Each structure stands twice: as structure tokens, then as C-alpha cells.
């Protein structure tokens, strides 16, 4: 298999890429000198490091001249608020929501849909990740490496069709981004006194006949949260006095996430106007410890008194749950394009790998028994996901203003999963041993014994190979005020599943499917405004855990979950209709409406087979059933106030109103996790005479509702306020102070839990839980010096 060729150290691969960059100038020296016009063209695209570091003007949303509906945000748009990651940057663009923990922005939900409905690209390439829904957590991409963020609302035949909600393309800095270099240094200051440093070095310049860009970034990460849960035996639906009559227990938890991210970006490019060659590599590593300490009490407020070794105690349990995470991802790509008599030929090949290692332990002492008991659990997760892909496209010039493109795409994906657990350690602890135990001075891990060897969990040891072979064709062109694109893509996929945790007769499975995906977009210039209309068919491929043939007992309340190797992708027909109007020289205001009709929707269905927990429980299986609809309207504004005499005041804002409808066995609901709205607005004031500026942004998203078998969750977020103050010193130095989460934003969740589906219909609660987590403000000081 071709991907096996790439096994080995990421360092060796990146060094090979660097060697190729160095080797290229030696060969190129034998060729005729590059025409002066080529240097001029490259210089037109390149800004000096001083222009990047000392941002004297306000950044606005870009105008995209392509036919397809695309919003482009350069780094100047969000840089002054110093986002740590690509996810943080996306909090300021339309229609992106998150269901992340407080202070985190990982799984982007374009138009509020599950992350698996959004295509995430880096430099136009698909990237692997550890998530079973094929999504990629954007908090792993440092914002310092970003050149621009693109939101592509409708799909094109040039891209794979995995974009039901749309596409988010993170464009990293390339060799034409910057001339010169700069140093970055800073620190994050948290409300508990913790300080996390950050730093980086970036350089771009001419190298041989081309240009080179290199950057490294180290970022301390820290997230201290407080969480409280109140659990009841019933809910207000059945008992208005549940808080006093049905109280069961309270849990207080400290959740501290402490780690460091390391990242690097390397790019070399050559462009003489006819030939362009580019080689790029990027690397990200995350080392992170997540430490949770939880206490359960039998009182709504009290923490005093001895542990529950007698009737007077109120500490029910003490839990220590550390999770140690190490993630590495890297990618290497090469791209060549040539303009010649027949048109333009483009070839691109790339390889990407994602490695995820997690070790999770849990130690707990349960005092709420006649004899206290210690329980210890250990689990490990190892996931390696490789993707090798290539694309070849030939564009033919049919006539002035009309081109025809024909292309092919291949991708070989190998995903190896190893999830294993040690048999549970469980034993009674005598009262004599626990005498004098205090949650303030003692810890449950003090009683731990060595864990036995781990064994794979059901569905936890498998290999998935997914091979794609696509071809596409499209026409594109310009006719007066009209730009257009229309294309057709044929996607053919073979999936091989080998699950080593099931019987041999069920372990090996092969599934094949193919789709025709038409798409079209048109953009019409109307004076200072532009009308854009587009339509496309897209797909969402099944989750990896859903296509494993394993049976997971008591996975859904007391019900079991059985995978389905024959599960097929969901498909969607959709359209977008938008209008944007230019305001002054740089401003723009826009509105867009969208609709998606999702077919072959994957939902959990009752097989009517009795579950492992006995009478009243069942085996559920994901199947392609029913349809769903998604619709909404999106507004955005980015402009200065020059029309009212305030050219140094920039305002920006966006509002998305989104909704959907889907049927499950309990009735109608929105798509799981979809917020009804999300908005943010802000202002930046520049003081050119003083070399200073300040700004603020405010963000809020609506509540989200999830309903699955055995559980219903309603999630609400508080508002988020961020401010910055900036001082520019000379032409080379900028210092910036940023305050984020200034409103102590909280995440509040309501859980309805049921043992069986029948109980869920009858509203017979197994547990009703109110959970809230909160984190304090974060302050950041960052300085950059250009050279």
C-alpha cells in the first residue's frame, strides 16, 4: 500500500522537503534568468514583515471575485484580538457555532450542524483527525500561522463533496506572504494566577529563483474550570418541587487542562508567470494533561462534616480522573502548475498523518455504602490516521471568457484504532483505613494498585481503509457583469473494515458506493452590489464507530448499540442566494439565505432485539432512514464609518438565524446540537497620530438541543466579551493587551436521562441533571518585533 512508503519520522519527511527546496536553486541556476516581470509579480503579492506587525489600518472582510459564494477574512480581520487558534478566529465569522467547553473552540459547527457536516481544509487539502465523525478540531491550528480564513457556502466540482453545511478552508502563510521576519513573545494570565508563555519566529524572503517562508510557534495552553452538577430522581415536568423532594446528589468538580502546543510551517515557491512550483510542510504537536477532581455530596450546599462513614457524613464519593493526551499531525504537499498553449495544467500531491495517544485513569472511593469501596479504571486510546491524495486538472481555454476544466482525484485513507481497557480494580476499604479521611488532605489514588494488562474494548481494535477515485468536469467564465461556474463530479469509494473484536465471520467487510454531484454558481454585478446564486449536491460519509460491526452493551442508557457495516452516506441537495453591497472603499454588507434537503439521514433505530440489560431494553442500530431539512438567513457587515466622518472607526458584525427539522422515533426536532442563532458585533478605533488603537467584540449563540436514545441535552452559553488595546512603536514594534471571557461566560446543560426508550416516551426519568461550568477572564500580553 502506498501509504506504507511514508511511514517513519515526521522529522525525516520535513527534512527531505527542506532538502528539495535547497536542491532546486542549484538546478535552476543552469536555466536562463527569471524575467524581471516575474519578480515584479511576486513582489505585488508580498508584504513586508513590518506591514504585518505594525497594522496601521483596520482589517475588513475581503471581496471574493469567484463565482461561488465565498467569504474571505485575512489575518488583519481578527489578528488584533489575538486568537490562539483557528477555532478562536472563527468565532468572529458568520454562522459558526461551537458546543465546546468554556474557553475552548474545537469542533466548528457551520450553520449549527454537527462538525461532521462541515468540510475542513488546510490549504485546500482534506486533513485527517482522531474524531469518529471525520471532523478536525480547529483548536489544533495556531492562529499565528494563518494567512486567511475562507467560508465557502456552496460546493464546487473541484472539491470533494463532503460539505453539506459548507467548507472552512484555513489558508496558512505561504512564501509570497511576507518579506523579512519578526519575533513574537507573549504571556497568558489566568484568574487563578497561572501564567503561560508563548513565542514564535517567522521569516520570509527570496531563496534562489523562488521564495521561502518558515515559521515556528510555541504556545502554552491552560483552562481552569469549575463545574457543578445537581442530580434529581425526577424533573420539573413531573414534580414542580423536585429541588427539595427529589434531590439525589450534588457534584463539585475542578477541571484543569494544562498543556503546550508546538507548531511549524515551511513553504517554498517559485513563480515566473507561466510555471509555478510549491512545496509546503506543516507540523503541530499537542501535549496536554486534563485533570478532574470531583466530589459528590448528599446536600445541596454543604461540604462540611466527615465523610459518609456514618449517617452524619455528607461526602458520598471522591473521584480523581486524569487524562494524558499527546497528539501529532503533519502534512507535506507539492504543487505544480503551468500555463501553456492548451490552457493550464495543475498537479498536486499531499500526504498527511494524525497520531493520537491518550491514557485515562479514574480512581474513586464510594462512601455511600455499608462498606466503602475503591474503584480504579484505566483505558488507552491509540489512533493513527493517514491520508495520501493527489489531484490532476487540465483547464482548456475555449474562448475569451470561457474555460473548460477536466480533473481527477484519488485518496487512500488508512485508519488504525486501538482502544483498550484494563479489567476494573474494585475492592472494599475498611473503615479503620479510612478513619480521618478528608477530601482536602487525602486522595482516592492513594489506594490504587497496579492495573492488569489492557484488553481491546468492543469495536476498539480495527482498521478502516477508504479508497476514493473521483473525476470531475466544469465550465467557468465571464460574460459582461456575469461570472459563472457549472460542474459535475463523480465520486467512487471503496471501504474495507476489519474489526478484530468480533467473530471472524463478521470481522471483514467491504462496502462500495458512488455518487454524481452536480454544482453551479453564478455571480452578477449590479452596480455597487453583487448577487450570487448557487446550488450543489453534497454528501456526508458515515461515522467510523457506526460502521464497525461490534455490539456495545448499555451504550445508550441501558440499551445496546450495534454498528452497521452497510451504512451509506447521507446526501443533500441545497442552494444559497445572497446579495452583498460595497460600502465605501473597503466596506461590505451582505445577506444570504440557504436551504438543505438531507436524504438517507442516519438515525438510531430499534431492531426489536432484546438488549443485554434484559426486559424493556433493546439493541439499537444506525440506519439510513427519513429526511431532514436545514434553512436559515445570514447577515454580515464590515465597514468603516468614513461616511459619517469617522474613517478610523471600523465596525463589524454578523447575525445568523438558523433552523432545521428532522423526525426521530420520539417525534420532530432540530438537527442535534444546532443553535437557533449566533451573532457577534464589535468596533475598532484607530488613532493614527498616537500609533494606538483599541477595540471590543461581543458574541452570543442560542441554546442547542440534542436528543438520542436514553438522553436529551439542552445546552446554553453565556455571552463572551473581548477587548484589546494596542500601541505601535515606530515602524517595527507592536505591543498588544487583550482581555477575553470578561463576562465569565458559563456553559449550562440540562440532562434528561432514561433507562429505556419506553421510559423516555413516558417521561419516566432515570435521572434529571443540571450541570454548569464556568471559567474566569483571561488576559494576554503580546509583543511583535519586525526585522
From TrEMBL:
<dbReference type="Pfam" id="PF07715">
    <property type="entry name" value="Plug"/>
</dbReference>
<keyword id="KW-0732">Signal</keyword>
<keyword id="KW-0675">Receptor</keyword>
<dbReference type="GO" id="GO:0009279">
    <property type="term" value="C:cell outer membrane"/>
</dbReference>
<feature type="domain" description="TonB-dependent receptor plug">
    <location>
        <begin position="71"/>
        <end position="167"/>
    </location>
</feature>
<feature type="domain" description="TonB-dependent receptor-like beta-barrel">
    <location>
        <begin position="371"/>
        <end position="742"/>
    </location>
</feature>
<keyword id="KW-0472">Membrane</keyword>
<keyword id="KW-0998">Cell outer membrane</keyword>
<dbReference type="InterPro" id="IPR037066">
    <property type="entry name" value="Plug_dom_sf"/>
</dbReference>
<keyword id="KW-0798">TonB box</keyword>
<feature type="signal peptide">
    <location>
        <begin position="1"/>
        <end position="28"/>
    </location>
</feature>
<dbReference type="InterPro" id="IPR036942">
    <property type="entry name" value="Beta-barrel_TonB_sf"/>
</dbReference>
<dbReference type="InterPro" id="IPR000531">
    <property type="entry name" value="Beta-barrel_TonB"/>
</dbReference>
<dbReference type="Pfam" id="PF00593">
    <property type="entry name" value="TonB_dep_Rec_b-barrel"/>
</dbReference>
<feature type="region of interest" description="Disordered">
    <location>
        <begin position="225"/>
        <end position="256"/>
    </location>
</feature>
<feature type="compositionally biased region" description="Polar residues">
    <location>
        <begin position="237"/>
        <end position="247"/>
    </location>
</feature>
<protein>
    <submittedName>
        <fullName>Outer membrane receptor for ferrienterochelin and colicin</fullName>
    </submittedName>
</protein>
<dbReference type="InterPro" id="IPR012910">
    <property type="entry name" value="Plug_dom"/>
</dbReference>
<comment type="similarity">
    <text>Belongs to the TonB-dependent receptor family.</text>
</comment>
